[in-house]
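Justification of resources, computational component.

The compute hours requested in this renewal are based largely on the per-chain cost of generating structure records like the one below. Each record pairs the submitted sequence with a full structure-token output. That output is archived, and it is also reused by downstream analysis tasks.
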Amino acid sequence: MCPGPLASLIACLTLGVVTVGVPAHAQIVSGMLTIAAVLSLAATASAQTAESDVNVAAIGDFVVHESDLDSWWRAHEAASYARVRQDWYDGRRKALDAVLGDFLLQREAASRGLSVEHLLAAELPKRVAPVTDDEIRQMYERSLPLPGGMSFDQVKPMATTYLQQQHLDDARARFVGELRTSAHIAIRLEPPRQPVAIADVDQARGLASAPIQLVEFSDFECPYCKQLEPVLTRLRDKYGDRLRLVWKDFPLPIHSQARGAAEAARCAGDQGHFWEYHDLLFANQQSLAPDDLKRHASTMKLDLGQFAACLERGLHRADVTADLEEGTRQGIEATPTVFINGRAVIGAQPFDVYEKLIQEELSR
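The structure output for this chain reads:
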């Protein structure tokens, strides 16, 4: 499939990769079923090798097994190990959703005495939003410059057809989603999980017994971490005692003030004001120099002498280092990185991404 930008679409059309006018799901459905079949075979093979732990090399009596490779990979290249595991799961989950969606459409069509094509012809028009001129204009402007300096009028018919197809695919996805809500689907495909070590000194909000444990590796100087904060607040408001939020420091080397801010927040935490100070730091993200950290503390009900001594003696330096080491073991390369019951979510994703994953966990 071709990517969204108009320039790439034009290139794809030129090469004949996409047939405009043919539903995208129709173009990929056979491929998705093939992927599903391959993944099923691969999963079976993986299960079999897990039992026997295949011998992959030997030097005399020295034998190397597949499990040895995974152990080395996880220990020495944690980030790539985590990425590959997540990509593997995402590919299988995409295939699973496609197979389930096709089955639900076939079942619904059979219950009405229709073919799938006639079912979609009856249902999708009700759900398709019209393509607007603003939408076409935005797509055009985001794609500039275009090959050969193509004008808006030249690309408008092509962009319109492409966006209409996108809207049709979105309508199909919504219809399948409606069918899924009334179907009792048991998803047994297990996602990759990375158990995160939680220390007694880590700051947390919520009950330790909560069914959802959200561990956030964050950086007070990172703008994306600040962007995530309202999302986390919404999640806490929605799920209440069912969610526990644990903070982990992961000050990036590119942020010169982040480590000092992390230690200062822990010093405030010694006096029971971690989260209040945490909020102040994000609200004043451009003011995290040592004098700023003390000034922020002066606006709170803190023993300023104790706070200053904590900072000067570096009482929490080792705690921040421990978080950094734990994050590195988990393969973290960027902030924010969040683990929801061990399932990684990288970056300041929208609320819906976290909500969907939490709902999956609660339904297990």
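The chain has a mean pLDDT of 88. The two ends are 33 Å apart (CA to CA).
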